[in-house]
Structures are given as C-alpha cells and as structure tokens.
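> forwarded from #structure-qc
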C-alpha cells in the first residue's frame, strides 16, 4: 500500500498540455516535495483552526476537546516514524521486535489517528449538532482540525517515495 501512488501516469493529458509547466516525469521528480509541503500545510491549517476556535470561543468549550488534536498529532508522528522498508521487512537492521514490532507500532499510530477522528465526530455531533449549541463553529473547528491532521498523516506516509536514488 505504501506505493499506491507509484503508478500515476498522466502522459496522455500532459502530451496535450501546451503550458510548458508539466513534462512527463515532473510529478515523479517532485513527488516527495509536493506531498511533504501539502501534508505540512494541512497539518498547520488544522492547528490554525484549533487556535482560532480557542480565540473565538474564549474558554466556553471544554478543555478536553483539545485531546483529540493532541492524539491525532501523536498518531501522525507514530505513523510516519516507521519507514516503508521496515514495514515490508526490507530494512537492514530489524530492531528489537523486527517487522512485527513495526507493524504493531503502526497499528497503534492508526488507532490514535482514528480515535481522534471518532472523538472529533463525537464533539461535533454529540455536543454541538444534537444539542443545538450556538455557535457551532467550535465543534466544526475541532472536527476540521482532526480531519486535516489525519489527511496530512496519510498524505505524508503514502505520498512519498523512499527509493529516489
């Protein structure tokens, strides 16, 4: 799954393009840069939204709502701390637990990420939509924060290629 974007081929559409910006191998050459910048931007915008919620809401929402974003961030670090070669078992140094340990670590990282998404859904729907709290922006903001952090972790993990050289 780590190479799910390896076979993207846009030669047909790029051959018709007359703008001169895109050639056949442009995406493959710039893939790591593009996915890293997009993932970092998604992560930063997610936390920016959470900070905006804190400023606008000014202490009216529970402090526990921040835990979802923190666990989403921990999940991002856990997911991306493991290289794809370690997941496949191709690493030179297997580590303490080998391939099974890296896969367990990855599962716990995804559990943190999915758990934060579930918590953000509960905050949005259980606390703001169902109870009809006004304004509903804090619930939407915390949900968007966790959605953007989750998207950033997936893009950063599966959008990059390790064997560039």
């Amino acid at each position: 799954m780590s190479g799910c974007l390896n076979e993207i081929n846009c030669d047909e559409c790029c051959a018709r393009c007359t703008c001169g910006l895109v050639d056949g191998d442009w995406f493959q050459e710039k893939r790591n840069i593009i996915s890293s910048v997009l993932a970092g931007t998604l992560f930063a915008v997610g936390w920016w939204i959470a900070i905006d919620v804190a400023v606008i809401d000014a202490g009216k929402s529970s402090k526990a709502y921040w835990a979802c974003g923190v666990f989403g961030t921990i999940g991002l670090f856990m997911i991306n701390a493991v290289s794809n070669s370690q997941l496949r078992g191709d690493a030179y140094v297997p580590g303490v637990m080998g391939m099974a340990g890296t896969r367990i670590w990855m599962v716990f990282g995804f559990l943190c990420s999915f758990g934060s998404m579930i918590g953000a859904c509960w905050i949005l729907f259980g606390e703001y939509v169902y109870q009809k709290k006004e304004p509903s922006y804090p619930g939407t903001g915390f949900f968007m924060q966790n959605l953007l952090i989750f998207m950033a972790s997936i893009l950063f993990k599966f959008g990059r290629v390790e064997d560039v050289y």
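QC bot note: Helices lie at 11-16, 26-57, 66-80, 84-88, 98-129, 137-158. The mean pLDDT is 83.
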